[in-house]
Amino acid sequence: MTKTTTKIYSGPLSMFGAKVQIAALEKGIDFELVMVPFTKGDAYEPKHPDVLRINPVKQQVPVLIDGEVELFDSTQIFEYLEDRYPGPAHLALWPQGIAERARARQLEQKSDEVFFPNVIRLFGLQHDMQSAPAVAACAACARYYDEMEGLLATRDYLAGPYSFADIAFYMACIFADRKGARMTEATPRLLAWRSRMGERPAVRTVVDPMMRFLASEGRDVASFLMPR
């Protein structure tokens, strides 16, 4: 019987692709990583034919092929992987309880849809970080950091046990730092959480190549993200 090959399509600076890669590594899934062509300006050209076929409207990574299953969108891919490869409890990336899982899923969604849009507003504003749009975006990120700081008062990870919510927010924070919305000493628990996340082997396996790519392009890399 031929073994099904799981393929994950990502890119050197794909935050959402990195989320899927980290989750797959944490779960011990055997997969083939396909890095799509990348050009300067945070763009992916030429578009990979499998990406165009599976995600024809957005034409973005990540994309997953697992036998007859073909998916796009990092959250949808993760949900599929969690169902497809449940494994032992210690490899689960959602909490066990129904209510706890719902809260974790909400945190992952907020990271993508509430926090990260503020980071997107900073793209192209690094030359004018004192402008009203940049100041407003950084202030919104700081308020979100404060909210996450509160969650960490009684736990080590955002939803209690380590979960996909942590993976999503960690990757979003990397891009926030790159674009000027940095964490400060005002949120010490969140800084400690960031350090814990950065020590995880699956996280380092994915983030270190991303930072090396940035350095090769002559872009700044924060000290806490320097490859080891």
From TrEMBL:
GST C-terminal domain mapped to chain residues: 97-224
Biological source species: Variovorax paradoxus
Gene3D superfamilies membership: 1.20.1050.10, Glutaredoxin
Name listed for the protein in its UniProt record: Glutathione S-transferase family protein
Cited SUPFAM superfamilies: GST C-terminal domain-like, Thioredoxin-like
GO molecular function: transferase activity
PROSITE patterns (UniProt xref): GST_CTER, GST_NTER
Keyword Transferase: yes
Pfam family of the protein (one): GST_C
Domain GST N-terminal: 4-89
Alphabetic keyword roster: Transferase
Claim: Transferase is one of the keywords in the record: yes
